[in-house]
Amino acid sequence: MLSEDVTMTTGDLFGNAGDQPHEVKAPLADRMRPRTFEELVGQDTLLAPGRPLRVAIERDLLQSILLWGPPGTGKTTLARLIAHITRAHFISFSAVLAGIKEIKAVMAEAELARRQMGRRTILFVDEIHRFNKAQQDAFLPRVETGDIVLIGATTENPSFEVNSALLSRSQVYVLRPLSPEATLDILRRALADAERGLGAEAIDVEPDAVEAIARLANGDARTALNLLEAAVMVAPTDPASHRRHLDVAFVAQVAQRRMLLYDKNGEEHYNLISALHKSMRNSDPDAAMYWLARMVEAGEDPLFISRRLVRFASEDIGIADPQALVVAVAAKDAVHFIGMPEGNTALAQAVVYLSTAPKSNALYLGYQQAASDALRAVAEPVPLHLRNAPTTLMKELEYGKGYRYAHEERDAVAAMDCLPEGLRGRKYYQPTERGFEKEIKRRLDAWEAIKARRKA
């Protein structure tokens, strides 16, 4: 058997919430944890009556699953509900505390339970993404033989963090951040519940204060309840009524600032930079400014953002506004020079400029096509007329023969091909009619006409 700090049976781990009172010092978020499906809010897409996952749980037919969602959306709560409902042997441990030794012990215990008692084991692994691939591999044999039904909970994208073999043997269920309405429902229940919540407290809470907490929680029920409890505990007392009073202003003081959901190494990192890039591409400076602020205020590396802006200036604007690259590089230099938080306005200036600049991906497409030809086509030698001839031998081999010096030509354009013979006539850069590219297109068309006349 595993040590008690790593694994416990259903009764040891979760207790009988309906039969035993919570300790007085238990946090509000723990006291208010739902004990039935009827108390669980915010995940109706997965757990409303008749939904496949709920039916499988209620009929004790659950197969291996992965619960993926942000903190405070109900992953552990759902595991607790399963623990109370299932007739299987239920074991739980956290990937933060357990290692390969504990995993092997659990596997052996599960195998023994099935062989001796014909009883399956449900294994709940919290924060399964913290296990490395070798540790995750240890689950595979027992999952395949049916000794265990695995329930893994993770805040990270399973596609990146869970072993592909384990992923293929599990059904992934996505838990969404709670809506403000769902969070409000949870907070109101906590304020009304005299047994487990704050209903017995001598406190008056303004409705606007509850709504403010719901917004600040950002879809996280645990954060919402923790903030409510913290605010209630230190709320000022009215001398006349001897009741505490909680309003919006006091909530703001307790909260200090919003804790933004952001993992600089996880999916949200890529989601937000994608949102910024696509908002700028769609010429929406307001959305771009918002996504920038989300990243900066959450602590993203400003030089990472700067690099993305420099790339955007060439990829999505290019010569439609050549100044865009100058602005992006200047913002990078400004951030590097003055640091943060002062550098946030330099980033904002660049974001707004790039959002409102004329757009063209002609450079990007042109380079992609040129790179494709460079990699796939026969690597023809550089035409002789484009080669330098610094030695007598090279001149004898006709290096540079036929080269025409553009500055000596009328309009500074020579009727001379510069691509290898097999690629002549290929057009990589095709400017748009937007911004400065309209002028570039006019020039290229005029030069093309001059070359055509001279060749004729």
Indicate the overall shape.
elongated
The CATH class of the largest domain: Alpha Beta
Total number of β-strand segments? 7
CATH architecture of the largest domain: 3-Layer(aba) Sandwich
Question: Structural class of the secondary structure composition?
Answer: alpha/beta
Number of domains: 4
Order of the strands making up the biggest sheet: 2-3-4-1-5
Distance between the termini: 91 Å
What kind of sheet is the major sheet?
Answer: 5 strands, parallel
- Please name the CATH topology of the largest domain: Rossmann fold
Question: Roughly what is the average pLDDT, rounded to an integer?
Answer: 86
Tally the helices: what do you get? 22
Percent of residues in helices comes to 40-55%
Compressed to H and E, one letter per element, the order equals HHHHEHEHEHHEHHEHEHHEHHHHHHHHH
Q: From the alpha carbons, calculate the radius of gyration and give it in angstroms.
A: 32 Å
**Spans of 5+ residues with little confidence (pLDDT < 50)?**
1-23
Structural description of this entry:
The chain has 456 residues and is an alpha/beta fold. It folds into four domains: 10-174, P-loop containing nucleotide triphosphate hydrolases (Rossmann fold, 3-Layer(aba) Sandwich), CATH 3.40.50; 180-255, Helicase, Ruva Protein, domain 3 (Orthogonal Bundle); 267-356, Zinc Finger, Delta Prime, domain 3 (Up-down Bundle), CATH 1.20.272.10; 381-455, post-AAA+ oligomerization domain-like (Orthogonal Bundle). The chain contains 22 helices and seven strands. The strands form two sheets. The protein has a five-stranded parallel sheet with strand order 2-3-4-1-5, sandwiched between helices. Strands 6-7 form a two-stranded parallel sheet. The N and C termini lie far apart (91 Å). Residues 1-23 have low confidence and may be disordered.
